[in-house]
Amino acid sequence: MSYRTKLLLAFGVLIGLTIGLTALSNWGGRLAQLHIERARLAHDVLEGHWRLSSHTYQLFKQLADALLIGDQDLGRGEADLERKLRADITDLREMIADEIAFVEEDEQKGERGELLTLSLLERQIDRVLVEFAEVRNLRNVGERGKAWIKLNAVLEQSIDGSFNALLAAAIAEEHREVKAADAKARALINRVNLIVDGLAALAIAVGILCAALLLSGLRRPMVALLAGTRALRKGDLTHRIELSGSDEFGELAHSFNRMAGELEAKNRDLEAAKADLEQAVTARTAELCDANAALEKADQVRRRFFADISHELRTPLTIIRGEAEIGLRGNDKAIDDYKGTLHRVLEQAEHTARLVDDLLFVARQNAGETRMSRQAIALREIVESVCGDAEVLAEKRGVTVTLRQEVEEAVVSGDPGRLRQLFLILIDNAIRYSEARGEVSLYMGAAPKGVVVRVSDGGIGIGPDELERIFERFYRGDNASEHHTEGTGLGLPVAKAIADAHDGELVIDSRLGEGTTASVFLPTVRKLRAVA
Predict the structure, then answer these.
(1) Residue 108 placed within a domain
(2) d(CA 483, CA 508)
């Protein structure tokens, strides 16, 4: 069992005991409150009986005194006492009803008996009041002897006999209920206190036991781990911690031993590493020499780039200047001559503008700052339009252009002009480097992530050494230069920059003397539909 599990188990036991103790305390408190409330109700009923007894005897005494010595307040005192007495009976009846609603069903029978006793007391009081009225009537008609005899009977029999016995029994019953309720409340409180004290003692004992067990299980591994760290700090890499078990400390000891072993092995390897340092320095020196050679090569490429661009821009500028000088030289010429000159100047200016625009586009693409007007484009329309234009170019060389499409709809997000330029570059290259009466085929079909357009020819092909450099600006292979002297070497770099700017890919596959296939992969924005 892991140490973490032991901790969780110990905390779980303590939390369970705490919850149980709290629940028991709450339950005991609520139960004690119920018994206290029951005792309070019993006390209230008992006090109500005492008030009823006091007011009844005061009323009976007032009535007797009025008959013996005369009514001094003309019956006002008797009326006030009778109102209090009736109020006492009403209060008692309500309090007994509260008791009936409060107690259990087996105790309700006794409480209903109290209501019956109260009703008997009320009837007995009414009977005594009637008898006092009869005594008063006898006295008023002059029969004082009969009145005296009747009064003695009321006092001795009705009050001291029946009423006293009935009231004493009711009060005695309430005394018994009060004592029983108080005893139950005290017994319950004592029992709950005893249980709570027992659980508290058990919780303390369990807490002490858990703390002792956890500390005992913690001390030995901590001592072993501290000894291991001290030995490691002193440089003793051979020290190992002998600590078994599958808990966290066992895993920590295993990790410590593995770390010490790795440090020991690395320390052994350090000497060997020192011996290999000179060899590594020598190898690094050779690598630096290779890097220096690569830098020199890159510098050559840079110089070649500037030389090529200077050459490519110088030629059209020279032609423009020459044409302008010819137009200005000599006498005035015919309008057609000036138009011819201006037409040739315009052609060279457009050529220069295209060259500069292509250079800027490639440079911006390399810098990640391509500027294009992107929109949803039906690629099929662009491919068909380019294929139509290519037929005009191919006719001059006797080359046949064919188109095969396997998708009906391929919508891409891009710049229509740049995509058209991309496919024209590829088709123009395929036509230029094809043999006379050759064939250039275009294919458009589905690709794993969109659509692919392939331009294939059976022309001169590209050698493997030159294939690696075809995307370098102004680079033209020897085979291409011999076959076709014109060209700037910007076509494929521009085509690749356009494909990259459209989140696509341009792949060139070629074999010398067998032909070349250029594949353009573009992501689509709408699901492709195959041609039926």
Answers:
(1) yes
(2) 19
pLDDT of residue 522: 93
Distance, CA of 499 to CA of 505 (rounded, Å): 5
Partner residues linked to 508 by β-bridges = 518
How many domains does the chain divide into? 2
Segments forming the whole domain that contains residue 94: 3-210
Res 483 pLDDT > 60: no
CATH number of 382's domain? 3.30.565.10
How does pLDDT run across 195-237, given as a tens digit for each residue?
778 878 887 888 788 777 767 666 677 777 777 777 777 777 7
Residue 79 to residues 58, 63, 129, 139, Cα–Cα distance (Å): 12, 10, 12, 20
How many Cα atoms are found within 13 Å in the side-chain-facing hemisphere of 508? 24
Would residue 15 count as lying in a domain?
yes
Give phi and psi for 275, each to the nearest 5: -65, -30
Compute CA 95 distance to the chain's CA centroid, rounded to the nearest angstrom: 60
Q: What mean pLDDT comes out for the span 336-340?
A: 72
Pick from 91, 92, 109: nearest CA to 100: 109
Q: Which tokens sit at 63?
A: 């009535």
Domain-ending residue, one of 210, 243, 274: 210
Determine the distance from the C-alpha atom of residue 514 to the mean position of all C-alpha atoms in its chain, rounded to a whole number: 60
Between CA 218 and CA 4 the distance in angstroms is 11
Predicted local confidence at residue 301, as pLDDT:
47
- β-strands 411-414, 375-378: how paired? antiparallel
- Residues 117, 96: contact at Cβ < 8 Å? no
Give the pLDDT confidence score for residue 311 in this predicted structure: 55
Helix (H, G, I), strand (E, B) or coil at 439: strand
The answer to whether 505 and 499 have CB atoms below 8 angstroms apart is yes
> Of 297-306, 380-389, 503-512, which gets the smallest average pLDDT?
297-306
Q: Which amino acid is at 288?
A: L
Q: Is the dihedral of CA 429, 434, 440, 446 positive or negative?
A: negative
Dist. CA 117–CA 107, nearest whole Å: 16
Could you tell me the pTM of the whole model? 0.40
152-155 — which CB contacts under 8 Å span 24+ positions? 154/128, 155/64
